[in-house]
Specification:
By secondary structure, the protein is of the alpha/beta class. It folds into two domains: about 210 residues, Rossmann fold, CATH 3.40.50.150; about 80 residues, no CATH class. It is about 30% helix and about 20% strand. It has ten helices and 13 strands. The strands form three sheets. A seven-stranded mixed β-sheet has the order 3-2-1-4-5-7-6, sandwiched between helices. The protein starts with a strand and ends in a 6-residue tail after the last helix.
């Protein structure tokens, strides 16, 4: 059977594309507005046609590509800030972000694939235009299923809850994702990682900034963690004083900025990019930006390949064929 040909819109660094490859699909098109992330995608998936495009105003080149490539499926990850529950006070850019969700309808009209997978945050379910958006997709002949997926239930060592909207032309998809035992975060940690662990009363603050004293709040977090979890745990610098977390459970959701501090009997350190790759479900050899900040930004915004693969395996019967 021929492999299903897919296009990846808002492709970022290629999580959906990698999941599609793992599901036996062929990635023929990748589209993103940011040239920097598109170049990372191209380094990992050189076989695809790469287009730097603003999907709020698609060019004739993109329209032609979607029409000519004869794609079997579209993988689409519209920006999530406008739908995120953590977005805070409403800002003008949130409305612009939400409006890009409508590009799904335009892309389906142009490409007419036999299936699609849209990924976003669960907050999309509270979008005031959701009913109209779904109807517009169904009017194109697609059956639609809304799936809230917790990556930890599929074997990812990270909690990561996301919404996936899955559609098939002419039928309603029925997905039954098999749950597996949760994987502990500590199975990912390289405890002998050669980077120097910093003393507990100090912390590494990034390239060129040297070693600085931890805040009193961080010291309280560490004291709480020692009391509850012993020598090894981690905490989230974006939360309250009592947010030490147990490494015997999946990691809390990876974001696009550095928020986690790992604590052991050796001291403290940040998680490494190779560790974040595993937490996100990427292969260890996956190419990322050389600067950690950019790598983490791309990984935190990515779709987990493991989750995308599970969805496509179920949708396509495990063979990558429509």
């Amino acid at each position: 059977m021929p492999r299903a040909k897919v296009g990846d819109l808002f492709c970022c660094m290629g999580g959906s594309s990698q999941g599609a490859v793992q599901a036996g699909c062929q990635v023929d098109l990748a589209v993103d507005l940011e040239p920097s992330v598109l170049s990372v995608h191209q380094a990992n998936h050189p076989e695809a046609l790469h287009l730097a495009e603003d999907l709020s105003a698609p060019s004739d080149t993109l329209k032609q590509a979607l029409g000519d490539l004869d794609l079997d499926g579209l993988l689409i990850s519209p920006p999530c800030p406008g739908h995120a529950r953590s977005r805070g006070a409403e800002q003008p850019e949130h409305g612009s972000s939400r409006s890009l969700t409508w590009s799904v309808v335009w892309a389906l009209q142009q490409a007419r694939p036999s299936f699609f997978v849209v990924e976003n945050v669960v907050g999309l379910l509270k979008w005031e235009e959701l009913t109209a958006w779904r109807k517009a997709i169904e009017d194109l002949g697609y059956g639609v299923s809304f799936e809230v997926v917790r990556a930890q239930d599929l074997g990812l060592p990270q909690r990561r809850e996301r919404l996936f909207v899955v559609g098939e032309l002419g039928s309603s998809p029925k997905l039954e994702l098999a749950h597996v035992p949760h994987v502990a975060a500590d199975t990912v940690i390289d405890w002998d990682e050669p980077r120097r662990w910093n003393p507990v009363d100090n912390a590494f603050r990034g390239p060129g900034t040297g070693i600085k004293s931890l805040s009193q709040q961080s010291l309280r977090r560490i004291a709480h963690g020692r009391k509850v979890y012993g020598d090894r745990f981690y905490y989230n610098t974006n939360k309250g004083n009592s947010t030490a977390r147990d490494l015997s459970r999946p990691l809390w959701t990876v974001s696009c900025v550095e928020r986690f501090v790992l604590v052991s009997e050796q001291g403290t350190r940040a998680f490494t990019v190779p560790e974040y790759l595993v937490f996100m479900g990427f292969p260890s050899a996956y190419i990322t930006p050389s600067r950690k900040q950019k790598a983490l930004h791309g990984l935190g915004n990515a779709v987990s390949p493991l989750v995308e693969q599970a969805l496509l395996d179920e949708l396509l019967g495990g063979g990558g064929s429509p």
